[in-house]
Amino acid sequence: MSSDFPADISLRVAEHGLDARVITVTGQIDVPTALELATSLIAQMTVARVVVVDLDGVKFMGSAGLSALFDANELATQQDRALRLVCNSRIANWALVAAGLREYFTFADSVPDALKDSPCMQGVIEAGAARRRHRSRSRRSLLRHSSVIRCAVAHVALPECKQDATAATTPGSRNC
């Protein structure tokens, strides 16, 4: 079935050995395209221990895209896999910083750097995974207890949450 609208996102997957995949994302990550990104991330994590997401070509990242990345990172942590981001896109970086999520991810300057798997890097990865597990528990607790944050950051992951801009900014709002 073809669509009259051009694709807002392009996802290219490349294999790097038996245990690593690189997903190169180009375009806009918003509500209609975040599911495609999430599906691709999960599919690659089932076959590879290391998944690198190259966000350098991202032109827009909405809360749905942030949620897809955060959920994939949670899954990677639970399954002792590594999700690494290459993020030289000013827009994607801004979205991660504005949402307070940058500290939850492992970043590399380039795809080759993200694919390095030296014993020294493995210790850094394991320490980062332990730190992310601790932070993700805190983040999940925060998301459960704050309707404002749930609306503003993770409304796609919570279907009962309405996408009303005033609800996200009104303290004590119960639209979620």
Describe the structure.
By secondary structure, the protein is α/β, with parallel strands linked by helices. The chain has a domain at 9-115: 2-Layer Sandwich (Transcription Regulator spoIIAA). 49% of the residues lie in helices and 21% in strands. The chain contains seven helices and five strands. The protein has helices at residues 31-47, 63-78, 90-98, 111-115, 119-145, 147-153, 165-169, and strands at residues 9-15, 20-29, 50-61, 82-86, 106-108. The protein has a five-stranded mixed beta sheet with strand order 1-2-3-4-5, with helices on both faces. Helix 1 (31-47) runs parallel beside helix 2 (63-78). The model is unreliable at 1-6, 118-124 and 141-176 (pLDDT under 50).
Tally of helical runs = 7
Q: Kindly identify the CATH topology of the domain at 9-115.
A: Transcription Regulator spoIIAA
The ordered H/E elements are EEHEHEHEHHHH
Give the fraction of residues assigned to helices. Answer: 40-55%
CATH C-level name of the domain at 9-115: Alpha Beta
- Distance N to C terminus: 34 Å
Instruction: Please give the largest β-sheet.
Output: 5 strands, mixed
Instruction: Note poorly predicted spans.
Output: 1-6, 118-124, 141-176
Strand content: 15-25%
Average pLDDT, all residues: 75
Radius of gyration: 16 Å
Query: How would you write the strand order of the largest sheet?
Result: 1-2-3-4-5
Question: What is the CATH superfamily classification of the domain at 9-115?
Answer: STAS domain
- Number of extended strands: 5
CATH architecture title of the domain at 9-115: 2-Layer Sandwich
Structural class: alpha/beta
Note the overall shape: globular
